[in-house]
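The freezer alarm interrupted the setup, so I double-checked each line after restarting. Inputs confirmed:
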Amino acid sequence: MTSVNDNSSILKPLTEHFKDYLPLNDEEEALLLPRIVEKKIRRRKFILQEGSVCQHYNFVVQGCFKIYKVDEKGVEHNIQFVTENDWATDIGSFHSEKPSELYIEAMEPSTILQIHKTDLLFLYVNIPKLDRNFRVIIENKFVELQNRLLQSFCYNATERYLAFLEQYPELSKRLPNTQIASYLGITPEFLSKIRRELVSK
Amino acid sequence: MTSVNDNSSILKPLTEHFKDYLPLNDEEEALLLPRIVEKKIRRRKFILQEGSVCQHYNFVVQGCFKIYKVDEKGVEHNIQFVTENDWATDIGSFHSEKPSELYIEAMEPSTILQIHKTDLLFLYVNIPKLDRNFRVIIENKFVELQNRLLQSFCYNATERYLAFLEQYPELSKRLPNTQIASYLGITPEFLSKIRRELVSK
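Predicted 3D structure, all chains:
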């Protein structure tokens, strides 16, 4: 009802997110609230571009982002999709303060909560349980990435597509074929062929 | 001189390691000491095999391990080398308690410090700064793995070999060609060709 309440409602997706880890108490939420910024991101807009230093942890409230690299020939390689209740950040650039090699682009109209590096460092010191929470969050992301690497080495394209469907059950309907194909390292035509074969089985 | 001193010297490589993060105080070291087990591992011995649940964090004091997966055709894919002052663990299996898809094998006679899962969970609760330390350790490992994934997508074999030399400057002398070739996803013959070309440049 009041503007304070309106403002604190911004925090809700994030406090709900942390309930999967160590939940924050009222005092901790009060420290967090002034340090997050809600942003609406239009489709096709970037929250990180190659050559820029990644200065934010971005929590996706609504929408979908792709994280990708463009190689020397100009080919895009999608390395990760990030949807609701997950973090879209180039951790390497964030910590090293070196220019990122990556792009992070909105695939849909999206809403994010941004935490600036200065604020996150303040929060780590003042809310020690955030070290625990982000330790577990990054461990999960490490495992995801390791699975992706193993799949790229050991799986054929059909197996990689089935693994994609398992990891992102909603995304096959939300994303254009070209984006899924780029993630799988195949052409859109080959993806269509795989889909036809799976349907006919 | 006394057996207590001898015993506590076991801890030293690990307390030195943590000095790069938040150093442990005497009380914290006293909690850690009874929960680590020093092990000598013979060359070619496994500290994890496919199908087993990974129950330990393994800190490498001396030696070298390879972490790899064997695909359905029986081909080995090296995903990571781990040497002194680093951790060799299948984080996914450790946390999920599901059977690992990976092997972790000693490439040299090695010494490790093992922490069992039960002990690590105890330590996380009783030494909160370990959450911080392992958050940063895992973040670094995430960045390493992401670089490896990007290289496998965007680099040719020569570029991947140069990146390997940069990441593991000592390992090109310590490891047999076959192991480096498996890490790079090429044949040992092709690796020899790359090396000859680089020398002749």
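Quick read of the result. Chain B has ten helices and eight strands.
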